Amino acid sequence: MTEQNITPVRKAVVPVAGLGTRFVPATKAVAKEMLPVVDRPAIQYVVEEVAAAGIEDLLLVTARGKSAIEDHFDRNVELEAALEAKGDDDRLAEVRRPTALADIHAVRQGTPKGLGHAVLCGREHVGDEPFAVLLGDDLIDARDPILPTMIDVQQRLGGSVIALLEVEPSQINLYGAAAVEPVSLAGIPDGDVVTVTELVEKPPVEEAPSNLALIGRYVLSPAVFDVLEKTEPGRGNEIQLTDALQTLARMPASEGGGVHGVVFRGRRYDTGDKLDYLKAVVQLAVDREDLGPDFSAWLEQFVAGRHVELSSDPSASHPR
């Protein structure tokens, strides 16, 4: 085993420089990562996931207009003082919670050149060690963590590790797709870890190598930085992380190459578009102990009422 393979994963990079165009006008003046999912901004779920995996050093790759994200993880002395004076200990604890999750740093991406470029912006901070990358559009349920398993696989096999999700074959063109071979690893169920032999960014359905899609969790070898430096813009004229991973998959382990995948079988919430965002809010609210019972009861009544309303409206089945 090389020294790289046993270097602990101590840092995470979280790209948050996107414009959030799919959520305008809500994101005209508010970072999309700050949109609330129940009562926390989406980005807080991601940072909580990082902290739960034992990573205490986190780099935000930001852009102009994203200062609210950094502010959220900083102290708000005036608000804390007001809540303390009112004796509102519960809300005070919630306000203080984000500041204690991790040691958070930030660097600006500047020109938006794609996810691969955003990861490359973390090179100076990360240095020569493996690191995690988490995308804010994918929220992983805290009850079904995948990052600790990915870190374990990287520590045991070296190289880079990506998270994969089985999707309907007809939907694979919306994702990066992976061709894989099985791997047996002690302590992990058969089929949950694979060797990645090929990656294709958003392939046509008929050309996809499988229905295993990349989702927004990675544990990367530092060799990815040299590869990204040489990666030409691809789909969308952007530097694609998927293209760099394809190169790493072909490189020898002695040079930091090799890519493995961990197949995720838990609960995941996609906040990448409006409909999936609304679904994520509902699913997480229903599972909350403080909100779930009342919200579920109201939701059942609302849906039943809508069903009756639509059934009794002749025009509902013949929209103009």
TrEMBL record:
One of its GO terms (molecular function) is UTP:glucose-1-phosphate uridylyltransferase activity. Residues 11-282 form the Nucleotidyl transferase domain. The keyword Cell division does not apply. It catalyses: alpha-D-glucose 1-phosphate + UTP + H(+) = UDP-alpha-D-glucose + diphosphate. It is an enzyme of class 2 (transferase). Its EC number is 2.7.7.9. This is UTP--glucose-1-phosphate uridylyltransferase.
